[in-house]
Amino acid sequence: PDDIFKLDDLSVLDLSHNQLTECPRELENAKNMLVLNLSHNSENRLESLPPQMRRLVHLQTLVLNGNPLLHAQLRQLPAMTALQTLHLRSTQRTQSNLPTSLEGLSNLADVDLSCNDLTRVPECLYTLPSLRRLNLSSNQITELSLCIDQWVHVETLNLSRNQLTSLPSAICKLSKLKKLYLNSNKLDFDGLPSGIGKLTNLEEFMAANNNLELVPESLCRCPKLRKLVLNKNHLVTLPEAIHFLTEIEVLDVRENPNLVMPPKPADRAAEWYNIDFSL
């Protein structure tokens, strides 16, 4: 009913899993809306968004998952300056149908662009000053730009199920990073930066189903690491310093048939593992 959009107190609207083929034009009247969920409509037939959506200047959460928005340029997004959460999972995003800039979205903290057709990280993501959670899993991304060092507040980064063969050393500058997911890529030992131990807040590192034969010793210098998942690789051993991860709760090294765990060093040698010998 059209009148629902004239309700002054309408702040949350969930229209997901319906039969919408187009977005209600009356939506622009819901001036105080904070949360809008339009995901999974009409068996994937919601293909566009009305220009008037740019008038939802108070909107904080927009969820569009599972709609075939291939030809939608999403030009409305830069005007929605209150956005904090933007979920575009499985919406046929490519390099050409995302806005070139989103730097006006200074509150945007949570972005989901998983299950799309991206071959690289969209440029518009590098200039989001409040970005904390970014999901780019299940795309076709082959490399990361050095610009990722701009993600100074990012805490969760999901790059699983892409085509990455290496990570740039710039990733070691993400000092707030707590969760790094790299499952099902093409990473080998040379593809992991030796300075990864600089991620002192890292709690979860998941790199299952890659081509790792070894992991950098510095990974074992992440003092808060609780979850280390390396199953389905080609590991032959792990650094001896693995024994000094005092916070570790999960160590998954299944399906590494040639793996030989290192012996636990004598206690008197422990002090050496806190020394950084890198230049």
From TrEMBL:
SMART domains: LRR_BAC, LRR_TYP
Signal peptide: none
Domain named Disease resistance R13L4/SHOC-2-like LRR: residues: 125-206
Name of the protein this chain belongs to: FLII actin remodeling protein
Gene source species: Homo sapiens
PROSITE patterns per record: LRR (PS51450)
Gene name of the record: FLII
Keywords assigned: Leucine-rich repeat, Repeat
Record's keyword annotation contains Hydrolase: no
Domain of life: Eukaryota
A Pfam family the protein falls into: LRR_14
InterPro entries in the record: Leu-rich_rpt, Leu-rich_rpt_typical-subtyp, LRR_dom_sf, LRR_domain-containing, LRR_R13L4/SHOC2-like
